[in-house]
Amino acid sequence: MTTDLELTAPTTRPVAAHQDFDRDALAAYLRAEGRAFRGELQVVQFAGGQSNPTYLVTAGADRYVLRRKPPGALLPSAHAVEREYRIMRALAGSGVPVPRVFALCEDPSIIGTAFFLMEYVQGRVFWDATLPGVAPAERRVLYDELNRVIAALHAVDQAAVGLADYGRAGTYLPRQIDRWTRQYRAAATEPIDAMERLIEWLPANIPHGDETTVVHGDYRIDNIIFHPTEPRILAVLDWELSTLGHPLADFAYHVMTWRVTADEFRGIKGADLAQLGIPDEAAYVEAYCRRTGRISIEDWDYYLAFNMFRMAAILQGILARAIQGNATSSEAIATGQRARPMAAAGWSQVEAMQAKQTS
């Protein structure tokens, strides 16, 4: 359903031929769900995105977002639209902004793969983390809002919102390292030496101590819809990788933006942050610590190295899907080819940690 806000960002394009589906079947499904409308469905595809194809569906006076699994062979446990639907439904009213969800269809006979429908939230999506065209004072507040919401997510009582069984408590890092090692190997197209080094080093050097909260898994500024005119988050999107996990690993993934360049993966490394009005990494981490009651974060560089390894595995999966011909984005090859430099960046974090330990 639409809101009365004016759309200022996400862009759409015609549906890619290999990701199209039977509009009449979807229309019949919508009507069976009690969503009556006149005329034919209008469907376009949102630009961007590398995982689950996402569409804007216009049904009479109403608009929805449809998110589905991609067609073709998929890696185990990937593209979990069912989990996205469940967590957004659970977080409604929790203080973490999410779109309203309306229906989950796990029957592949309707449009070929499982999908869900959610609210179409109108607002601003920033693909460039330096926020071009935004005044420095507003950039500062927008980043503080990002910080506030991830801290709020990590404060959610998973049992109270019905997510106590959404994942396993504890041992998140060893399980994630094992998972992404398997995903990387399943999608490997050529050897990456830095990945092999990380696969050996990371499980042998996991920090002591453990915590469990709800984690997003892909909390980036381009997965956020901001109010069209206010520095306020209306919706956090793309919950495919969400689970119960370690909040510091989740936060470090978000802060990885400060450690990589725009070319490496939508980062802000090398940008003049003071001139832009964007807090530096130390100030941003301190704000999160203040909000979550921490004095500091030990083993910070480990969490960053882990996330660079994890991102390299994700990028390798994108490259493999592109080679197979069932990638969501037209830029999938170029995006997937960033797996190698991302892995190298992760190993550089490890080398820096080792240098500190021996100095």
Write up this protein.
- The protein has 359 residues and is an alpha+beta fold.
- The protein folds into two domains: 12-119, Phosphorylase Kinase, domain 1; 136-358, Aminoglycoside 3'-phosphotransferase, Chain: A, domain 2, CATH 3.90.1200.10.
- The chain is built from twelve helices and ten strands.
- The chain has a six-stranded antiparallel β-sheet with strand order 1-2-3-4-6-5, covered by helices on one side.
- Helix 5 crosses helix 12 (339-358) and helix 10 packs antiparallel against helix 12 (339-358).
- The termini are far apart.
- Residues 1-9 have low confidence and may be disordered.
Cα separation of the termini = 59 Å
The number of helical segments is 12
Percent helix, as a range, is 40-55%
CATH topology of the largest domain: Aminoglycoside 3'-phosphotransferase, Chain: A, domain 2
CATH architecture of the largest domain: Alpha-Beta Complex
How are helices and strands ordered from N to C? EHEEEHEEHHHEEEEHHHHHHH
pLDDT averaged residue by residue? 91
Strand ordering within the main sheet? 1-2-3-4-6-5
CATH superfamily annotation of the largest domain: Aminoglycoside phosphotransferase (APH), C-terminal lobe
> How does the helix and strand content classify structurally?
alpha+beta
Question: Concise description?
Answer:
By secondary structure, the chain is an alpha+beta fold. The chain is about 40% helix and about 10% strand.
Helices and strands in order:
Blueprint: E1 12-13, H1 23-32, E2 42-46, E3 54-59, E4 62-68, H2 81-91, E5 101-105, E6 115-119, H3 136-154, H4 172-187, H5 193-201, E7 213-215, E8 224-226, E9 233-236, E10 243-245, H6 247-255, H7 262-265, H8 273-276, H9 281-292, H10 300-324, H11 332-336, H12 339-358
Antiparallel strand pairs: 1-2, 2-3, 3-4, 4-6, 5-6, 7-10, 8-9
Helix pairs in contact: 3-9, 4-10, 5-12, 6-10, 10-12
